[in-house]
């Protein structure tokens, strides 16, 4: 390994101030709330459902995953709070995440049979699709632990509302994605622990390797009642979809497992014979801990996000040895760009110290092009309220130079890892590589807020619109009523933009503890290097 030559960042963060202590207390309170929700997600359908599962000799979904992964290896769970404040339990009735099995990094998607018997719905399908997208984009094997009653057919929101309507024709992309992974030479492995009926039968049907648990797996397009109704034929579940039948007669199962643990054991054996090699690179630089404590990140951000902070204080705490070579520090200072390494992996990092002015946009676009030329992954640290507006900035080319930045982000081919630590508003979200810009991973801090604009601003804009309407109609403007509307709009808008609200609909890969940011980014850099990291050969037309 090589030694990184850049100088260490010198922190100016005052950790003994009252403001720091208040910020830290607020952050810890948010993390306590998240921990409570994570416990709720782990509980799934509740103790009664877990007892019924155990009575049938079955393991809970997280124990299946635990035994599948290598001992003491980390598991990066994805979208763990999906479905928060929806009609479904927190977690969405499924678990997804990246871990290591038999020395191979892979992504696991698993139905939780304690939640609606593992039935699929809007949140679990979206989590499933995200898991396959990670497998495709990062080139890692895809493993699914199947135990699902099929689609949730009840008349409620999400996927179930489409059943029986013309919208059904727009469903099924998940089956396309499974077989596409195989086409791309990305292994797909399925362990069936229980029921997999109707569309769920295609999960193993489209997979490279199938492991069925004896006397538990039940894989069929239609169960005995449906067969009876459709054909008049009387048959048993074992005859139609039993594990032994599929292993001996249909050939759908390659392996017949005695029980859950045996199924997991066989899955690990399959992982060990994949002969899987990473196409990317190993860490290049010496791995050195930062000079500053990760716990310092807890008190950095004031929860209302109205108090500025230096994004370099985060960079100095995620970088190896806190070493940071800043790029163009005197030009466009509201966007910070530079070179660091994280767990030995060299990366380019961009962060916000204010709005995107024209010079900042131009600098960031230049930096992204350089990183693509050098095949360097990009880490984006978002705290952005948007692009600067006004006569002076429009005349300086705010749109033109901002478009250069969006162009650079859009056409960049190196992996993007985005962490939203504060504001993420308007087109600034896009310019700093928002979720829909091909990110490999996107995470939130509990302080994150994502919206078109801040609640105070949007409520004020709507107030000005109402004033203009009243003036045009010659009506007297009701100041008191308008003030109440502004207050309620701001409260409602701010509630809708918080991190928990965003992550509940899977707009990201999850909320993380700020203290874990460096470790998570290190894991992600290892994951994205399963694929060759190669920069873009070209960009769209830049308006110069």
Description:
With 544 residues, the protein is α/β, with parallel strands linked by helices. 39% of the residues lie in helices and 16% in strands. The protein is built from 19 helices and 15 strands. The chain has helices spanning 18-43, 47-55, 61-68, 122-138, 173-183, 202-205, 224-231, 237-241, 243-250, 260-272, 312-318, 358-373, 391-395, 398-411, 426-431, 455-473, 479-496, 499-504, 517-528, and strands at 76-77, 94-101, 104-111, 142-148, 188-197, 209-213, 218-220, 255-257, 325-327, 335-342, 345-352, 378-384, 416-425, 441-444, 449-451. Strands 1, 2, 3, 4, 5, 6, 7 and 8 form an 8-stranded mixed β-sheet that branches. Strands 9, 10, 11, 12, 13, 14 and 15 form a 7-stranded mixed β-sheet that branches. Strand 2 (94-101) and strand 3 (104-111) form a beta hairpin. Helix 4 (122-138) packs parallel to helix 5, helix 12 (358-373) packs parallel to helix 14 and helix 16 (455-473) packs antiparallel against helix 17 (479-496).
Per-chain topology:
Elements: H1 18-43, H2 47-55, H3 61-68, E1 76-77, E2 94-101, E3 104-111, H4 122-138, E4 142-148, H5 173-183, E5 188-197, H6 202-205, E6 209-213, E7 218-220, H7 224-231, H8 237-241, H9 243-250, E8 255-257, H10 260-272, H11 312-318, E9 325-327, E10 335-342, E11 345-352, H12 358-373, E12 378-384, H13 391-395, H14 398-411, E13 416-425, H15 426-431, E14 441-444, E15 449-451, H16 455-473, H17 479-496, H18 499-504, H19 517-528
Parallel strand pairs: 3-4, 4-5, 5-6, 5-7, 6-8, 11-12, 12-13, 13-14, 13-15
Antiparallel strand pairs: 1-2, 2-3, 9-10, 10-11
Helix pairs in contact: 3-10, 4-5, 12-14, 16-17
């Amino acid at each position: 390994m090589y030694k990184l030559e850049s100088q260490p960042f010198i922190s100016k963060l005052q950790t003994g101030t009252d403001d720091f202590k208040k910020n830290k207390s607020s952050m810890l309170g948010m993390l306590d709330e998240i921990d409570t929700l994570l416990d709720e997600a782990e509980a799934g359908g509740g103790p009664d459902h877990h007892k019924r599962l155990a009575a049938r000799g079955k393991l809970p979904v997280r124990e299946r995953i635990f035994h599948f992964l290598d001992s003491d290896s980390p598991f990066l769970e994805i979208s763990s709070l999906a479905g928060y404040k929806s009609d479904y339990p927190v977690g969405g009735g499924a678990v997804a995440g990246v871990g290591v099995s038999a020395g191979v990094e892979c992504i696991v998607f698993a139905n939780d049979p304690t939640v609606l018997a593992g039935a699929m719905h809007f949140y679990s399908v979206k989590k499933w699709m995200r898991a396959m997208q990670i497998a495709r984009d990062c080139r890692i094997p895809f493993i699914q632990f199947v135990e699902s009653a099929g689609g949730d057919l009840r008349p409620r929101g999400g996927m179930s509302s489409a059943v029986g309507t013309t919208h059904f024709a727009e469903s099924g992309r998940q089956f396309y994605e499974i077989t596409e992974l195989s086409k791309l030479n990305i292994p797909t492995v399925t362990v069936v622990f229980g029921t997999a009926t109707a569309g769920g039968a295609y999960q193993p049907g489209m997979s490279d390797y199938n492991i069925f648990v004896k006397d538990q797996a039940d894989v069929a397009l239609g169960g005995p009642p449906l067969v009876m109704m459709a054909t008049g034929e009387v048959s048993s579940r074992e005859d139609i979809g039993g594990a032994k039948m599929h292993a001996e007669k249909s050939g759908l199962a390659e392996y017949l497992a005695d029980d859950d643990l045996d199924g997991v054991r066989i899955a690990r054996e399959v992982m060990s014979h994949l002969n899987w090699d990473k196409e990317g690179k190993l860490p290049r630089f010496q791995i050195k801990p930062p000079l500053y404590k990760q716990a310092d990140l807890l008190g950095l951000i004031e929860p209302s996000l109205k108090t500025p902070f230096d994004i370099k204080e985060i960079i100095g705490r995620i970088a190896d040895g806190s070493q940071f070579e800043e790029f163009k520090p005197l030009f466009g200072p509201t966007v910070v760009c530079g070179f660091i390494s994280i767990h030995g992996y060299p990366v380019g990092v961009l962060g916000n110290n204010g709005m995107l002015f024209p010079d900042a946009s131009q600098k960031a676009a230049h930096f992204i092009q350089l990183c693509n030329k050098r095949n360097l992954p990009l880490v984006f640290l978002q705290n952005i309220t948007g692009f600067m507006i006004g006569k002076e900035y429009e005349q300086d080319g705010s749109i033109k130079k901002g478009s250069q930045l969006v162009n650079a982000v859009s056409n960049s081919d190196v992996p993007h890892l985005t962490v939203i630590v504060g504001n993420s508003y308007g087109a600034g979200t896009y310019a700093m590589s928002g979720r829909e810009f091909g990110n490999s991973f996107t995470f939130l801090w509990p302080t994150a807020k994502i919206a078109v604009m801040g609640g105070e601003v949007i409520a004020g804009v709507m107030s000005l619109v109402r004033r203009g309407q009243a003036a045009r109609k010659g009506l007297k403007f009701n100041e008191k009523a308008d003030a109440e509307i502004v207050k309620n709009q701001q409260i409602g808008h701010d509630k809708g933009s918080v991190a928990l609200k965003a992550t509940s609909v899977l707009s990201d890969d999850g909320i993380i503890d700020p203290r874990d940011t460096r470790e998570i980014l290190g894991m992600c850099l290892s994951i994205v290097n399963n694929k060759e990291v190669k920069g873009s050969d070209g960009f769209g037309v830049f308006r110069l």
